[in-house]
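Morning run. Coffee first, then this:
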Amino acid sequence: LNGAGYRESEPFHLYLWDVTEDPHQKNSALVLIHHPAWGNAPKDPSWRDATGQLRNGCRVEYLAERFGMAPRDWGLSTSAAGWKGGMHEKQFGGYYKQAYWFVPEFGELFWRIWNLYVQEVQRIAPALRNHPFAFVNTMRDPKGDVYKMGKFEDSHAAAVRRIGLIPAKHLGTSIHGHRHAYGQRLRKAGVPKETIRRFMHHAAVESQDVYTQPDRAECMAHIAQGVQ
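And here it is:
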């Protein structure tokens, strides 16, 4: 969320197949969060047609045929996760949102943590992970079940308190604050607006304005500089 500017709900649609090592940057993560329904299904050797041939299709088909599930943005249960839309990309095949790490070191950090996380997931019996989603319960019951947004929100608030801060939107310490921080870093680094649009997966250039406005401290600094 902080290193690539994703919305809170988007990583909950990630499959384990969707994170690989970036072929253009060794030891950095290439993350493609595919559209929950119309993104390409993974090359799952267990997904075959009636003749035994490997199946190809979109994710809504894959979830239904392989797991008897619907995309998480179609549901209203506690396992649901939204999908706002915006700009998608296709250069790697499919219909997805790529993580553009800013700063690049975030991609390296995520790759290291991801590999440790996958080791934890592999310790959970496959029968308890009857779904393709990447983020699962690893320490609490039901182990292997899909990780829910409500649990993440509680854990995030607790983590903020552990470092001595108060989780609140107006303080910038809410979950959505990470996306704002990402947009602010891009603006302050002089990244062009059209590029920010792509990095933040906005359909329109103007959509980034709410994320890139200068804060009060920055405005006051400009005033102070102007009157010297």
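The chain has a mean pLDDT of 93. Good start to the day.
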